[in-house]
Write a structure and sequence with these properties.
By secondary structure, the chain is an alpha/beta fold. It has helices at residues 3-16, 35-41, 45-54, 86-99, 112-117, 160-164, 186-202, 207-258, 260-278, 284-303, 307-312, 317-324, 344-359; strands at 20-24, 28-32, 62-66, 79-80, 101-106, 121-136, 140-150, 156-158, 169-170, 177-179, 362-375. Strands 5, 6, 7, 8, 9, 10 and 11 form a 7-stranded mixed beta sheet that branches. A 4-stranded mixed beta sheet has the order 1-2-3-4, with no helix packed on it. α8 (207-258) runs antiparallel to α13 (344-359). The protein is flat and about 120 Å long.
Amino acid sequence: MNQQRVRKYVEQYLSAFSSHIMETHPDFLTVKLPVEVDKDIGNRPFYWSWVEKMNLPYQPLVLTFCFDPDRMPDDRRAEHLHLGAARLQQIFQSTRKHGSFVCMYETLPQTRAQASSRQSVPLVPWLGVNWKVSFICDKKRDFILHFGVNLHQPHIVRDFYPFLLQRQLAPSIPDYHYTLDRRITISQAFAMMEAEIRRILAQEDQTWAAAARQRLEEELQILEAYYRELEERQRRTADDGNEAANEADKGGDELQDGHSGKSTGSTSSAADNVESAAAEPNGSLNLLLEQETERQTTAIQAVSPSLEEHRSAGGRILDFLRANSFQETPREKIDQTEWVASTPEEEKRRRMEEMRWQYEPRISVQFINGGLFYLQSAPPSAPPHGNGRKM
């Protein structure tokens, strides 16, 4: 979707809502948004809630859309619209919201005989729906189905949307035309399309699903072998640890038997040192700690600049506060009671579920848009008038 198509799409979107185009330029356009468009793409929900609650007249939003980033206007604030821009995505969403279902009438120029006799022309009701069918596994393939269902004499045709592109359609019924009655409901028409989709899918080649299941089986076997090897390594590590612990216990017993007297003497001397340190509450250790704390505080105050110096040097206020005010929680004070490490079995089960979700073949059918169309002409693949299949 190049920039020319982006501009054409945006212009069609704005014209569908009868937007006021204030200025048109080869590089940009300036538009005054109507209420529906402003609510969808204006990005001011609080303004609209205030206007609606207070029952105040609204001020329309004026935007300038530019389609060439190298030719942005200098005299106004412009916004570059391109495929992937947030504003263009909002336009797409607004189109889906307001244009997912339409009602249109075919308009054909009347012949001189019809104009003189004022003969009324019947319009046949059709339900047209576009579907997106997706074949999904670790790969994906999409295709579009365009179905049309005749609601007067029920039958279904394909490639209905390309046929509509060649018709002249209007949102209101033209003069000297009338609509035929609908002999089936919308639900019955959707049931016909569902049956047709199932028939089409049954005729599709299913080798892609078998290949996806084969790749899934290979990936699951790799995971199974990996966790089997991991379990074996953990078991060997545990056995080696138990042997080392047993040897350490034996060596500790021998040392304790040979040096019991010496250990007793050492313990008594250590106890005497602790008692002597406790007897001096204002001892040298506390004095050293106080001196070190005072020295660090003085160093921090000397190095840390003031807020004005930090901002004048180009620093951010958040960095200054983080360095001088914000206190970080020590790691040992973080509550980790609810943090439970996954066991190898839980990790294996989770990874296998993710692998099945990625590789398991499935088919998705999604409604794109549709409409009710009253047509004077019939699609090429439709049967002649009066020969349709009755329900």
